[in-house]
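lol forgot to send this yesterday, sorry. struct tokens for the thing we talked abt
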């Protein structure tokens, strides 16, 4: 496969990885939020909605529905990666893992700011996933709540 075709998706995945690293770093460096603020019913519901959107999107990837996953992504994601680049690249990202076996959310975080992104509502879900060829893959998926109120994927980084 031509490396130039991989560059935009690789950049997107790398940017997602940096975004997640910055998010994780900010979580450990920031003072702890009051427990009541972190566990409000509203925030809990938003975390659940973002996680559900992320899991549904991952299911499309598991099924090889690359086009469906692309269309279900946020406008920001689609602006960063063109459909042709996505369709050429994402199969090679996922193929080495083999078939999907199981997935469990290990952490879900709600934020209103992320480095390099406009203020908004973001949910980052970290999933521990087992595939037939690779066990224990950590999949980081960030969703954003778009203007229509729907949560859509803005970043994906398997590691």
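and heres what i got for the seq, position by position
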């Amino acid at each position: 496969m031509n490396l130039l075709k991989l560059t935009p998706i690789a950049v997107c995945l790398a940017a997602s990885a940096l975004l997640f690293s910055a998010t994780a770093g900010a979580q450990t460096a920031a003072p702890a939020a009051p427990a009541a603020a972190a566990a409000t019913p509203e925030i809990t519901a938003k975390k659940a909605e973002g996680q559900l959107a992320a899991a549904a999107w991952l299911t499309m990837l598991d099924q090889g529905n690359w086009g469906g996953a692309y269309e279900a992504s946020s406008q920001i994601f689609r602006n960063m990666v063109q459909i042709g680049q996505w369709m050429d690249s994402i199969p090679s990202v996922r193929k080495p893992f083999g078939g999907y076996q199981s997935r469990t959310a290990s952490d879900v975080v709600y934020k209103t700011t992320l480095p390099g992104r406009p203020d908004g509502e973001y949910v980052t879900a970290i999933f521990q996933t087992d595939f037939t060829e690779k066990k224990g893959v950590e999949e980081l998926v960030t969703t954003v709540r778009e203007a229509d109120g729907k949560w859509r994927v803005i970043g994906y980084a398997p590691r």
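The chain has a mean pLDDT of 83. anyway ping me if u want another try
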